[in-house]
Amino acid sequence: MRKTKMANIIGGAAVVGGLSYVLMDKTRRDNVKSKFKEIKQSVSNNNSSHLPVDEAGDPGKQGIQNSNMVAEGSQFGVNYYNKIRQ
User: Fold this and answer.
1) Among residues 3, 5, 26, 54, which is most buried (max CB within 10 A)?
2) Where are the chain's structural domains?
3) What does the alpha-carbon distance between residue 48 and residue 42 come to, in Å, rounded to a whole number?
4) Dihedral sign, Cα of residue 16, residue 21, residue 25, residue 29
5) pLDDT value, residue 54
6) Count of Cβ atoms closer than 10 Å to residue 23 Cβ
7) Which residue ranges are recorded for the region named Disordered (predicted)?
8) Above 60 in pLDDT, residue 47?
9) Sorting pLDDT into bands at 50, 70 and 90, what band is 7?
10) Distance of CA 51 to the CA centre of its chain
11) Which residues are CB-contacts of 23 (< 8 A; sequence separation ≥ 6)?
12) CA of residue 16 relative to chain centroid, distance
């Protein structure tokens, strides 16, 4: 147990020391900020490009499989879409 705590403390100190070294210089700090903004923007663009909830609301839009399920009585997709959109 004590070895794990010591490893965590040493690891945390190493991370803090590394970050303080990188962020000390203004150019490095600006590079880190710009990389973080790029990553944040790419992640936000990927999430909003295609939502499967939109397909659930209109079963005839995406193909015959969704239409057949609704014709058989499956209303889960339509109800889920209505719940999310309200």
Assistant:
1) 54
2) 1-49, 50-86
3) 10
4) negative
5) 59
6) 12
7) 42-66
8) no
9) very high
10) 13
11) 29, 32
12) 26
